[in-house]
């Protein structure tokens, strides 16, 4: 079962990208009675590409992060926990241990109220 802080490689476009799980599985208002997880994409900062400065992550946050990166709040995902489990079991998603420290997870959650890039529907997931 996925857990808060898990780092998972998920196909997105032509490659797999790093996503961080922000909560232990739980029912999410508006998504039915099943347990869900909220995930955010982590993207590398590139000098020629604008990025959301709300939550910048340095390489010491997780071994997979090799350069300064940011939380791509535009791509928040709410996924059924069972779906994540099935994708991990099949190898479609790849777990990248160790988990991210929960203090970092809390900083990412705080960004839900700050980022101008996050969709309004997700703003109140972490009030």
What does this molecule look like?
The chain is of the alpha+beta class and 127 residues long. 15% of the residues lie in helices and 32% in strands. It contains two helices and seven strands; from the N terminus they run E-E-E-E-E-E-H-E-H. Strands 1, 2, 3, 4, 5, 6 and 7 form a seven-stranded antiparallel beta sheet that branches. Strand 3 (26-27) and strand 4 form a beta hairpin. The radius of gyration is 14 Å and the shape is globular. The two termini are 25 Å apart. The model has no long low-confidence stretch (mean pLDDT 95).
Write the layout of secondary structure elements.
Blueprint: E1 7-12, E2 15-21, E3 26-27, E4 35-44, E5 56-57, E6 69-80, H1 81-90, E7 94-95, H2 102-110
Antiparallel strand pairs: 1-2, 1-7, 2-4, 3-4, 4-6, 5-6
Radius of gyration: 14 Å
How many helices in DSSP terms? 2
The coarse overall form would be globular
Mean of pLDDT: 95
Main β-sheet description: 7 strands, antiparallel
Features:
alpha+beta, 2 helices, seven-stranded antiparallel beta sheet, 7 strands, 127 residues, globular, 32% strand
